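Feature request, filed as a ticket because there's no other form

It would be nice if the structure record came with a short human-readable summary line next to the tokens. Right now we just get the raw output. Example of a typical job, pasted below so the devs can see what we mean:
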Amino acid sequence: MIQLKSTNEIAEMKKSGQLLAQTHEKIKSMIKPGVTTWEIEEFVNEFLAKHGATPEEKGFEGYQFATCASVNDEICHGFPNKKPLRNGDIVTIDMVVNLNGALSDSAWSYAVGTISDEAQHLLKTTEEALYEGIKQSVIGNRLGDIGYAIQEYAEARGLSVVRDFVGHGIGPTMHEDPAVAHYGRPGRGLRLREGMTITIEPMLNTGDWRAKVDGNGWTARTVDGSLSAQYEHTLAITKNGPEILTALNDSDSE
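Raw output as currently delivered:
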């Protein structure tokens, strides 16, 4: 069941999203060789508490952390740990913020020190693919238009699109209908309506698109050890086009 949001509900989600964006900006300044994802985890817990918010991921279906921290070949749901990040690594930090009951969800991939040309291409293309999907998020378009735009953009640049993990509706709970695939055919799928709030969160790989899950039951990684990156925004479908709720400022909205 899809829950359409009122203008007031979207405004509250945007407040949550602004806090999430501020958190990512702080994390960006922390990323360097030698830092651990556990330090980032601790920062996120403290920063959100300071601003009256809570990490919605913690406790979700038994997940124990405020963040997902996925390094190199880890696609998503990596556990934060005390292993120092190394020069040349890439790391994705994903989190969901609950601010007074309003949710927002955003992931960003970061370069650690100096990274390879291959990794640079992956990060740049994944972020650009996210915005290609957002451009299609207008009233009357279909979910397949979003997926097709992302897939075409990624594959034309030599990258593969993960199929096993998709975007989703959000608010008032973390994962709601509809599922938002990052691949597909144009003109297919559910039609977008004003008041829908969804995440678009493409995960692209430099190699095979397929995933395997570690023994912890959570962490997904590429089957061939290739690099993976993810960028994600929460957005609202409005009569004025897609409104990005997790952008740091209004100028980032499409």
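Something like this underneath would help us a lot:
The helical segments are 7-30, 37-50, 117-135, 143-155.
The CA atoms of residues 49 and 55 lie 9 Å apart.
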